[in-house]
Amino acid sequence: MPRRGIRVAGFGADRVKSQRRSRGRSVASGLKRLVVPGLLLLSADYALFGGEYSVFEWREAREDVVEEQARLESARIEIDALQVELEMLERDPTTIERIAREDYGMIREDEVLYRFADGDNTGEREASPAR
Known about the structure:
By secondary structure, the protein is mainly α. The chain folds into two domains: 13-51; 52-125, no CATH class. 73% of the residues lie in helices and 0% in strands. The chain contains four helices and no strands. The model is unreliable at 126-131 (pLDDT under 50).
């Protein structure tokens, strides 16, 4: 029976060394199993929710683009309407006459203009003192 402090060379020493190596490998592989997925999760989190272009900022920018496209289309429609009105003002004498009559109260030489006062304006005239 061998003593406790004495080991037989070859059999016991190799076994102890291989156990120490396997422990070192298992710790390293265990660390790799934890660190690598952790780093992948952190980088995915940063890519999606952090940084300059997160998912939320991307969605907000996309909504802004849709709003601006709608405003652009509205502006184009307004520009087209104004161009049609400009062309009518430059070439159509009937349109010019209509605007002169409606906006400026102009009449032809042989016409008489009748203006009717609103009910609200009449009460104000009666309350004002005569000069």
